[in-house]
Specification:
- By secondary structure, this protein is mostly helical.
- The protein has seven helices and no strands.
- The protein has one domain.
- Helix 2 crosses helix 6.
- It is globular and about 55 Å long.
- The chain starts with a helix and ends in a 38-residue tail after the last helix.
Length: about 190
């Protein structure tokens, strides 16, 4: 909806490095984190609807948040282009998605720490945005495109959007026995799923 095919391939590779698959859960790509980010950027979040985006823009304190005339969608476009240019120049014309996982980790770590400088983009700020949105995609309700099969919720034992927990309020440190429920319900609740 928002990303070009090259941008989507890069985002899928990034979310899989930020949340790699392991014995506890699927990785970021299979959990739909890239789909979540794509959908968010195609909507009001990507356009910064509802936010004050008028000048003057000044570097603020970390508690004041990001200040720029560039929208969140624009930050992604600029950041992904700068990342693609850096990777192509340093890795013989390859794209980020074509790099070995160890090289992808080195690039992401370098951007996060500021050891790698991206042209016209503050790398650490872009990395923080990527990480935040990936985490949101892994743990948001599946209705938004991420957290496929409620993998993030299953991993941490979160029950989801159940309507009534009264029987469990006083039962501390006991695993909740029912599977998680999305805002849309569970697939086995639909007519004809028997």
């Amino acid at each position: 909806m928002f990303f070009t095919s090259d941008e989507a391939a890069t985002i899928e590779a990034i979310v899989d490095r930020l949340i790699p698959a392991d014995e506890r859960s699927i990785g970021g790509k299979d959990a739909g984190c890239a789909v979540f980010i794509d959908r968010q950027l195609a909507g009001p979040y990507g356009r910064d609807d509802g936010l004050y985006t008028k000048p003057p823009f000044m570097p603020g304190l970390p508690t004041q948040g990001y200040q720029s005339e560039e929208t969140t969608g624009g930050r992604y476009r600029s950041g992904l282009k700068a990342l693609a240019d850096y990777v192509a120049s340093e890795f013989g014309g390859k794209s980020f998605a074509q790099l070995a996982p160890a090289d992808q980790d080195k690039v992401l770590s370098g951007i996060e720490t500021g050891k790698i400088t991206l042209k016209d983009v503050k790398g650490s700020s872009f990395f923080a945005l990527l990480l935040q949105n990936t985490q949101e995609g892994f743990f948001a309700d599946p209705i938004y495109g991420g957290n496929r099969d409620m993998a993030g919720w299953r991993m941490i034992g979160f029950p989801g959007a159940h309507y009534d927990y009264r029987d469990w309020i006083e039962r501390h440190n006991e695993p909740y026995p029912l599977p998680p429920v999305s805002i849309m319900g569970r697939p086995d609740w639909t007519v004809g799923s028997q």
